[in-house]
Amino acid sequence: MTVQFIEITEDVADRLQVLTTPTACQVGDARMIIVDLLGSGPSWPLAVLVDQVCTAYEAPDGERLMVDLRDRDGMAGDDLRDEPALRHVTWVRATRLALRDLTDSREVVWSLHSDDPDEVDHPEVEVLMSGAEPRAFRVYLGEPLPDGSVSLR
């Protein structure tokens, strides 16, 4: 299946940024799961950590966006935050922020660069859209994290 990537307007991008910014509590919850996982094994790839946090909070990858973000009158912000595709982006961001905090505080270390695609950071998430044609857009999540697997210091 070929997915056509579309451009989104700056207004939609700004709205998406607001709707998917995690709370401090969500970042703390992601941090707790990351530390638990890192305590159970020697190291974990970034993609696996993100997937584990998203799964724990019932925000799996692959959910299609079922609302039109251009429609400001259709749904309130709180309703949109519960939309599954946006909830996934929020938890990916929470996981990345938690990892950034753990890295900055030197509580975790990153292994050397790897050729394993699961260990290379892609600081973006693809959001699939509902409809007959497979379309998606990319949400950039900010500064990349180091390549490699993560382990506790």
Task: Give a verbal description of the structure.
- By secondary structure, this protein is an alpha/beta fold.
- Helix 2 packs across helix 3 and helix 2 packs across helix 5 (84-104).
- The chain starts with a strand and ends with a strand.
- Strands 1-6-5-3 form a four-stranded mixed sheet.
- It has helices spanning 10-19, 24-40, 46-56, 77-81, 84-104; strands at residues 4-5, 44-45, 64-65, 108-110, 124-129, 135-140, 149-152.
Structural class: alpha/beta
Which stretches of 5+ consecutive residues score pLDDT under 50? none
Largest sheet: 4 strands, mixed
Q: What is the helix/strand order?
A: EHHEHEHHEEEE
- What percentage of amino acids are in beta strands? 15-25%
Number of strands: 7
Assembly form of the protein: single chain
Give the gist of this structure.
Helices cover 42% and strands 16% of the residues. By secondary structure, the chain is an alpha/beta fold.
Topology:
Elements: E1 4-5, H1 10-19, H2 24-40, E2 44-45, H3 46-56, E3 64-65, H4 77-81, H5 84-104, E4 108-110, E5 124-129, E6 135-140, E7 149-152
Parallel strand pairs: 1-6, 3-5
Antiparallel strand pairs: 2-7, 4-7, 5-6
Helix pairs in contact: 2-3, 2-5, 3-5
Features:
single chain, 153 residues, alpha/beta, four-stranded mixed beta sheet, three-stranded antiparallel beta sheet, 5 helices, 7 strands, 42% helix, globular
